[in-house]
Amino acid sequence: MDEISQSTTIELQSPIVCPIELSLVVPTFNEVDNILPLIEKVECLLDGTINWELIFVDDNSPDGTSETVRAIAQRNRHIRVVQRVGRRGLSSAVVEGILASSASVIGVMDADMQHDENILPLLWKAVAQDGFDLAVASRYADGGGMGEWNQRRQSISRGATWLATFVLKVPVSDPMSGFFVISRQAFMASLPKLSTIGFKILVDILASAPRRPSIKEVPYEFRARKFGSSKLDSAVEWEYIVLLTDKLLGRFFPIRFILFSFVGSIGVIVHLSALGVSLNLFGMRFIVAQSIAVLTAMTFNFLVNNFLTYRDRRLRGVKLLYGLFSFYVVCLIGAAANVGVGAYIYNAQWTWWLAGIAGAAVGAVWNYAVSAAFTWKK
Ligand SMILES: Nc1nc2c(ncn2[C@@H]2O[C@H](COP(=O)(O)OP(=O)(O)O)[C@@H](O)[C@H]2O)c(=O)[nH]1
Ligand SMILES: [Mg+2]
What we know:
This protein has 378 residues and is α/β, with parallel strands linked by helices.
């Protein structure tokens, strides 16, 4: 054994004098004004009681959040930043922060101080000392509250909470909470099955758990934001639906294929509508009307898939045009495969509708697989 590896072994064998007891992971996007107040609050609360580290996972915020954290981290060894470039996403940020941390108990919390940090020690104790797998800060448990949220957001949150019950393996009053403490063991157990889509990492963790985790709920009152603004928009609501669909059906089919097929089935309605209008309103010949309908449906499918199914690889500008033409080519070959397979099965004396479904299925798989490789290639 050489000198370096010998000394490493000795170091690892020596007892840890002051282990980190809580790794706090905070996802950030444009939170520059919240960084210092949050650090000060956590310091006041935990210093001298729980040995902590605080990891900000920042998606390269244009407001300089990463630089601000780094400047503080130069002077304060409790603090670190994981700066991600070219990527966005709250859930994936939390996962990367947890994987970059070291304590056996992990806390997840927002940067904007809407989460009441005063209950952190309670959450930590439930996991670190009382042996729970997970402690969730809950707005819906007795004693908790939604603070100043308007009626619309409260209703959306309640609806989303209700929807989550279909994928969760364990009942929790506030599965949408972004404020919780979890043992590393419980997190690692869920990790292989995580979808890391969107905003709701706790729903993801709970739905991916291989066994029922033990859970403690701690009520708290959600606070109003003082600095910065919410990143919740309709895209986040859509990603939530995608997450739940992935949790329900993802083990059978890739989530993008499910979305692609969903868009395709709406495309059939678009096709029939365009055909009906061309024939009945404009009195076109069938062959012309059918061609217009095919073109309309393909364009519709392309644009909607570009917006929803591939929103993370969305094509814009000239690339959008190239993408559209490559999609036309893919779909026309798909249509030929559809007709070919359908005719083959029909000629082999199968029923007409089975031949039709088999042809459509082959066409759909072709369109999905080939457009993924060419139109929306990574
Ligand atoms: N790293 C990262 N953090 C995000 C992203 N979107 C939101 N956040 C952070 O996640 C936390 C919750 O977001 P927020 O907009 O306050 O959501 P709201 O409380 O539901 O309105 C905040 O600390 C945000 O800065 C993202 O795309 N990447
Ligand atoms: Mg917030």
